[in-house]
Amino acid sequence: MGAAAVGLAATQRPAMTAAPATVVSQPPRRWGTDAEPVLIPDPDVLVLDEGFRARLVGNAIVERVWTGGDWLEGPAWSAVGRFLVFSDTRANRQFRWLWETGGVSVFREPSHHSNGNAFDAEGRHVVCEHFNRRVVRFGHDGLMRVLADGFEGRPLNSPNDAAAHPSDGSLWFTDPPYGTTLAEGRPDEAGGPTNPDGRLDPRVGAELAGAFGGDRRQPAGVYRWDPADRRLERVLGEDELASPNGIAFSPDGRTLYVSSSEQAPGVPSPPAGTKSVHAYDVDGERLRNGRVLSDMVVDGVPCPPDGIKVDAHGNLWCASSGPLGHAGVVVLSPAGEPVCRIRLPEVCSNLCFGGPRRNMLFMTATRSLYRLQVNTQGAAPG
Predict the structure, then answer these.
(1) 130-151 burial by CB neighbour count: b if 16+ within 10 A, else e?
(2) What integer pLDDT is reported at residue 230 of this predicted model?
């Protein structure tokens, strides 16, 4: 490409930064063990609505507590074990962060390219596995049970995130095809949507490929698993919500929130993700009155959502993959209005409330784990 062409391409390239271009505060902040003192209140916690300030701790700062992953995802808090579990989807392992020591160790390897984690009302560990295309649960006896690996005779794609209903014990999860790739699971067999020319061999280096889960990308969906009769129902189809990703309930369980992310692998356009947060009224086993709660545009800057958690006051804390200066967390009021932003130096994938009092916000962001003490509690366990 000639110099003129390079110059033209540069002028046509969309802007990838939003003020401040230094990612976070001025002067640029240093993270990690050599971090310098941070002025309080933390300049990277931006209050957009003064009414929300009561939900924050004025002298708390955003801390990076660990780094070294490839693509971190799915944090969940074990109240009994007093530890945080999170996935490294690309590295095919799970980690555990201990409350007492702050140490991180490998928790499960291989993790079958796990993504989302959750703990149900009984403290059992629920895992969304990309590679095996299923949702499993580890009981208190340490035994693993498969909760869902197919629907109506067809396999699942790559279950992404899960949430337990606060009153009836049902488990709801999203199933986009983000894990049908070499990086985060395994691609389709030859001719499948993520391997149309058949040049990729999904069994190379994956001895269990074909033993679990399907071989081709299926329509995405949102599912409800009933613990009473172990029945799986699709509550949202791909035609109703494309690229479903993060999922969470309101504190009373009457509203379900689902984020719709970017275009997924192997998916024709349309359907394409809306990069928005959607809300639905929960009517027993069905969803009604679907609507866009937030388009996730803050100050004119798109902040596409990923994982979602809800606090005891009904606010939605949304992981965001916005550009530099907006990547991090966007907090929405129950009405969908942005009330706060947390700026991180990395794209945030997911988050959860943890700690013995459930008032620590843990955030997985690209290669690192961050936390911030807040003046509210998570509405759900894990």
Answers:
(1) bbbbbbbbeeeeeeeeebbbeb
(2) 93
